[in-house]
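Morning. Coffee machine broken again, so started the prediction first thing and wrote up yesterday's gels while waiting. Chain of 411 residues, entered below exactly as on the submission form.
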Amino acid sequence: MILARAISADRREDLEVAFARMGLSARARDRLAEPLSHIHLLLTGLGQPEWEALGQIKIQSPDDFPRFLPGEPGWDRGTGLLTGYRAQFETLLVQLGQQPPTTVLGNALKRALATEQVPVPLQVGGRTLVFGRRTYLMGVVNVTPDSFSDGGAFLDPDRAIEQGMRLVESGADLLDVGGESTRPGAPLVDSAEEIRRVIPVIAGLCSKTEVPISVDTRKAVVAQQAIGAGARMVNDISGFQFDPLMPGVVSRSKAACCLMHIQGTPQTMQKEPRYRDLMAEIIEFLSGAVDRAVEAEVEPARILIDPGIGFGKTAGQNLTILRRLSDLRQLGRPILVGTSRKSFLGALTGKKDPAQRNASTLASIAAIAAARDVDIVRVHDVAEAREALLVANAIGGASDAGELFGGPGNG
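Came back before lunch.
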């Protein structure tokens, strides 16, 4: 019986079953896979030097380089599309490297072509999180009276500590303690009150577990107090944008940091959020946040990023972000995502009560984990999420090539 089936060239592992069935050696696999990868890159912000270089290369030898499609005249001269095979892009990078005025363009292309690379390990206190093997779990401990998901349930320090330990026992790799709600329209909390809420909880958890504690705050004074109490990470929803003192606090303490994208503030972010190019604007924002951290001498190995699901995004925009998380890989940092119980899941399922969104939360994290586009997920229900991730990570890393076929394909 003759069978024909499509083989995806987007991910190398999807080709392995075909290569193994053909009996190809490892060297032959590499040689064959390279020209199969067809790439489309949207370029924005092109200046005159880059424009001229791309035009000149196209004239010299069009078959050896990606095809460059400029935007319509009078629309956006800084925009164009490069489309071609990986080998053609590699040739282009060599040529751009010989032209100093196009260094910025060459670096941008290198970052875009490296989206399948596993990010470097993350240093959190005395722990090292190594990515690519599995998705890590960050458990949420809200010490607030008005959180959208469990407001007031763990306002008492003892109850919050008990909840944190339950999450650790369920498999949390990190705990994120927050004393100020950042739900849409939430009021600001005085720093002294935020400190009063979170410090006893952080200190209590640090005395009971070695799981690293993160403090969810946008205020440098709160972060400093939390680090003094034992926190080893600062989760800043503003991406070091709201408090200019925050980068210095993180740098001096050698803490890790999570830099999130937000449009506006919690008070304004959901009032008709608009983007001309959603992913480009998120990448530009996060790139600036990483630059702010590095300029303050925060070690790159202590920085991770978060696209900010629900922070200045519509339900449709949230879904787009989740589908295109791999776009963020060009920043070279581990990616954290929080979808847990959020309103876009309620919009999809009709569940108005956040506590009833567990199933949709699990579906969202399983989907992005199976695609291997996320490194850490932030959740309220750790036990259930851990099971979902065990399955999702197994699916994402599954390959029948090595298990079904022997011969030279195993070399």
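Residues 401-411 have pLDDT under 50 and may be disordered. Going to sketch it on the whiteboard this afternoon.
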